Amino acid sequence: MKLSKQFPLNALRVFEAAARHMSFTRAGEELGMTQTAVSYQIKLLEENIGEPLFLRSPRQIALTQTGERLLPKVSEGFGLLAEAVANARQSGNEVLEIHSAPTFASQWLARHLGSFQLQHPQIAVRLVRGGKMTDFARDGADISIRWGSGPWPGVTCVPLLPVDFSPMLSPQLAESIGGIRHPADLLRLPIIGSSDPWWKIWFAEAGIDDPDLETHRVNDFGEQDLDASAALSGQGVAILTPLLYRDELASGRLIQPFTLRARDGKGQWLIYPENRRNVPKIRAFRQWILKELESEGARIEDGG
């Protein structure tokens, strides 16, 4: 049997309004119905239940014992329905604003967000790239993904993955000098972003303490994704995070001539205000990104 046959919802709505106002007239005014229509709906409900719900007199009405037993549950039920609809409307229009360091945004996050939205279709995502630390009180962000030496005070900081780096270049550029066999071979080519501290760290771990990078200076873009674009076009060698360039490495558009990866102790962090840690959309994103990175084999440290 259909629910509408078992439970005359419209008549119950009229009953709740009439019992709350103790007036068929005022119930009709609230619901946009005539007094006759209200009386008709109450009569239908009484026939459905098999008991009178109101004691009627010329100037007032009063609930019967059956009506008094029915009213609390009907009121509770409509309250729950109103809450459910409000929650559905809110979640249906929910927007998660993410502020992210530029390279992570373009090289990893934008490529994976489709998975998050398939799992949470009620949440729309707005992704904003930027290099500065997010001010949650001013910038409108729900969460931020930042590279650095956290944790930072005043916010919840969840470590996502440590950042490592290694030189990468186009295969054509490598072939232009007969291939790359030793770390010192890289110094025969233009070095993109030669002032980046990562270069000295990597060369030191490769056994070259004084690579004299200034003599190999080429463009310095200040963002890893821009350095990578220059390397892809054959302008020089860039020092990049291999995790963020898996597609380019797999396709052969970039090569990583040495397995050596260096670190400077910094990493990618998920950040959000401490008082918003239980907001459903933030909690959903945190669970998703940790699982997504773990499934790729990225090392994730336990975080708060």
Topology overview:
Elements: H1 3-6, H2 9-21, H3 24-31, H4 35-49, E1 54-56, E2 61-63, H5 65-92, E3 94-100, H6 102-119, E4 123-129, H7 136-139, E5 143-148, E6 155-168, H8 171-175, H9 197-205, H10 224-232, E7 238-240, H11 246-251, E8 262-273, H12 280-295
Parallel strand pairs: 3-4, 3-5
Antiparallel strand pairs: 1-2, 5-8, 6-7, 6-8
Helix pairs in contact: 2-3, 2-4, 2-5, 3-4
What does this structure look like?
With 304 residues, the protein is α/β, with parallel strands linked by helices. The chain has 2 domains: 89 residues, Winged helix-like DNA-binding domain superfamily/Winged helix DNA-binding domain (Arc Repressor Mutant, subunit A); 211 residues, D-Maltodextrin-Binding Protein, domain 2 (3-Layer(aba) Sandwich). It is built from 12 helices and 8 strands. The strands form 2 sheets. Strands 4-3-5-8-6-7 form a 6-stranded mixed β-sheet. Strands 1-2 form a two-stranded antiparallel ribbon. Helix 2 packs across helix 3. The protein is rod-shaped, with a radius of gyration of 32 Å. The C terminus is likely disordered.
Number of domains: 2
Largest sheet, in brief, is: 6 strands, mixed
What is the CA-based Rg, rounded? Answer: 32 Å
- Estimate the strand proportion: 15-25%
Q: What's the architecture of the largest domain in CATH terms?
A: 3-Layer(aba) Sandwich
CATH class bucket of the largest domain: Alpha Beta
**Mean of residue pLDDT values:** 88
Shape: rod-shaped
Instruction: Give the number of helices.
Output: 12
Helix content: 40-55%
Structural class: alpha/beta
Pfam family, one: HTH_1
GO molecular function, one term: DNA-binding transcription factor activity
InterPro entries: LysR-type_TF_proteobact-type, LysR_HTH_N, LysR_subst-bd, WH-like_DNA-bd_sf, WH_DNA-bd_sf
Protein name: HTH lysR-type domain-containing protein
